[in-house]
Amino acid sequence: MSHQAHPTKLTPACLSKMRAEGTKISMITAYDYTSARLLDQAGIDVLLVGDSLGMVVQGKENTLPVTLEEMIYHTEMVARGAGRAIVIADLPFPVVQLGVESALNASVQIIKRTRATGVKVEGGENRVPVIRALLEAGIPVMGHCGLLPQDIRRLGGYKIQRDAETLRRDVRAVAETGVMAIVLECVTADLAREITRESTVPTIGIGSGSGCDGQVLVFHDMFGFTDPAAHLPKHARRYAHLGEVVTDAARRYIADVRAGSFPSPDESF
Prior knowledge:
Elements: H1 12-21, E1 25-29, H2 33-42, E2 46-49, H3 53-56, H4 68-81, E3 86-90, H5 100-113, E4 118-122, H6 128-136, E5 141-146, H7 152-155, H8 164-177, E6 181-185, H9 189-198, E7 203-206, E8 214-217, H10 219-222, H11 242-259
Helix pairs in contact: 2-4, 4-5, 5-6
């Protein structure tokens, strides 16, 4: 399912078709119009407006402080920049944790106020009632099993997920609801491959090996915008060092301003 073959908007059903055809699904996080437009032009399949924005955009220590209004703000911009890609918005903490009514109200706001395709729900078997309610309301859902960043306080840190029995049960329960796909975060590669083989819906891995049906990376990690001194997750391949490019360009600009060489006569009115 190439970019050229599908110039029009992708739908959740396209992800199942890609899986059936053996085409891996590409997903990247995005938080604004410009990055969404560039990624969409490149042919990305899914743009995830992650609550990871709390960390990579707002500079906070985890995803928990992100509000629904902030998610709507960023999702609206991303969706405006996406002509082809599916746009998914994370339901931020504690929208899902507060139950079905809370999740429904928040998701309806996201769908009505942005051009998002659907929402992502963290959790396994315990989130099935919420997921079913959203799907019955006509709101497409992407699941998220394995490491759950919104559970960071309970988990006590970001840990590799090795509990095969629990993961299998969670993925099976979430898949049976009819979600478009399930993110598998920080699951051991062999287990993720087995779960993917057993799953009835596409899986999208992050830190879960190459055996998933697709992969997702955080924009700032893959393009080198994260703090060089900060720890980069093992799974985050850096495809460019754009942070260095920006810093270098800014230094040259500062030097030109101080030297009086910017603006030149040609750049002046």
